[in-house]
Design brief:
433 residues, alpha+beta, 434 Repressor (Amino-terminal Domain), five-stranded antiparallel sheet, 19 helices, 13% strand, globular
Length: 433
């Protein structure tokens, strides 16, 4: 679109808001220029406005704070939000990573100015395993991955919010090749392209946004979460985002994995099990495991990373290839966890230890592939109790629940098909539900 096209979009939007056309003559008068001069500006003439002129147009076009800031960025008047980070002492970077880990049990992550994932804590990995994949990028996941469209409630609304963020970044960095490449990639999707062409506003960030999602790691439970965006002073072009659990006033505060916030910290990890503890669900056990895995480390080789799974470690080569060429998954049956290693830019292997269930959720389609069947079998066994009798009891509990869900899906599918026979039908319509 460019600066001229953006001015034209703002002027037309202002006209719609006022119920009348805001003319190019009015815009020219607002900045003490002729209509002809301003018309050339909207047509793409390489001209810059000063601060006073930007403020005048912002008032005429009734721009909000973010769009006003974007107007300044287009004219190189304020680039503090997009300035490059200075050289940072490695100890400061390590402290920042520790800060991210200390946000447990709230999912927390750090991105650069192009939304590439730089660091994350264990809760983030449990909720959204895609952050552990090589080259993980928030925009590409949120706008292009089918998984995101299934998790976000009202995906189009969220996509529009992400497009506003991209447009704001473009205003300050119109020639940045990585940013232009990112925008080009997401706009190859027809839905995203349509949103890009229709959304004209800009946003600095999504700080304080309340949104609803269905999380596979939580058995597709619906959760209301709030994103909190901060800018580390040592890395001003990066974003530190903490996701918190929203609760209604008067309700007991819950942590992002479904338990009472910080209740786990009151229990000694080696205390003997009580009668009540034995009654806890497997989900609670997984939650406790996630809380104990709060540190990410790096190893120089893939072999040393795999060794962290212990003597009983089992390599998962098929699932590793499904993650990416620079990923390695190793199952530790004794701890019911997976060592998820990704080769980073410096050649080191970044390590995350995640519950085996997290891998099952992330690679659900693997169960449909013959070559991955055995590895998925190992993972599924790892999430069940080690004791055979307890494992069978858990299976007896799960199978009726899963069969009931299948019946619900078949019923919905049949109802939709009966209303519109042009829809595909993956089951026999005469089957009893």
């Amino acid at each position: 679109m460019g600066f001229g096209g953006q001015l034209r979009a703002w002027r037309k939007a202002a006209g719609r808001a006022r119920g009348r056309t805001v003319t190019q003559e009015e815009a020219g008068e607002a900045i003490d220029r002729s209509e002809r001069w301003y018309r050339a500006l909207e047509s793409g003439a390489t001209r810059r406005l000063d601060r006073k002129q930007c403020d005048a147009l912002a008032e005429l076009f009734q721009l909000d704070r973010d769009d006003h800031h974007a107007l300044l960025l287009y004219n190189n008047l304020n680039t503090s939000a997009t300035s490059a980070s200075p050289a940072v002492d490695p100890r400061v970077r390590s402290a920042l990573r520790l800060l991210i880990d200390k946000q447990m049990p709230d999912p927390t992550y750090l991105t650069d100015s192009k939304w590439n994932i730089l660091a994350f804590n264990q809760a983030m990995a449990e909720w959204w395993p895609w952050v552990m994949e090589p080259g993980a990028n928030l925009m590409r996941w949120a706008l292009l991955h089918p998984e995101a469209r299934g998790q976000y409630h009202d995906w189009h609304q969220h996509a529009a919010a992400y497009v506003r963020l991209l447009k704001y970044a473009l205003a300050g960095n119109p020639q940045d090749p990585e940013l232009l490449g990112l925008i080009g990639d997401v706009c190859k999707d027809t839905d995203v392209r349509k949103i890009w062409d229709t959304v004209q506003e800009h946003s600095v960030n999504r700080d304080g946004h309340l949104f609803r999602m269905s999380i596979p790691a939580l058995n597709w439970d619906t959760v209301d979460v709030v994103s909190h965006v901060m800018y580390p002073a040592s890395l001003p072009d990066c974003r530190l985002v903490v996701i918190t659990w929203w609760t209604a006033e008067g309700e007991e505060e819950r942590d992002p994995l479904g338990g009472v916030r910080n209740a786990w910290a009151k229990e000694h990890p080696t205390a003997p099990a009580t009668h009540n503890e034995e009654a806890k669900t497997d989900e609670a056990a997984r939650r406790k495991l996630a809380h104990t895995l709060t540190r990410r480390i790096a190893m120089p080789t893939a072999e040393e990373a795999a060794d962290l799974a212990g003597e009983d470690g089992i390599n998962l080569p098929v699932l590793s290839r499904m993650i990416g060429p620079d990923a390695q998954l190793t199952l530790s049956p004794s701890t019911h966890s997976v060592i998820w290693a990704v080769k980073e830019d410096d050649g080191m292997w970044g390590i995350s230890e995640v519950d085996a269930y997290t891998v099952i959720v992330r690679l659900a389609e693997a169960a449909l592939k013959d070559e991955a069947w055995q590895e998925m079998l190992l993972l599924t066994r790892a999430v069940l109790p080690a004791d055979a009798a307890k494992a069978v009891a858990r299976i007896q509990q799960l199978v009726p629940q899963l069969e009931a869900r299948i019946r619900l899906l078949k019923t919905i599918h049949r109802d939709l098909w009966e209303a519109d026979k042009s829809l595909p039908y993956i089951w026999d319509p005469t089957d009893e539900v």
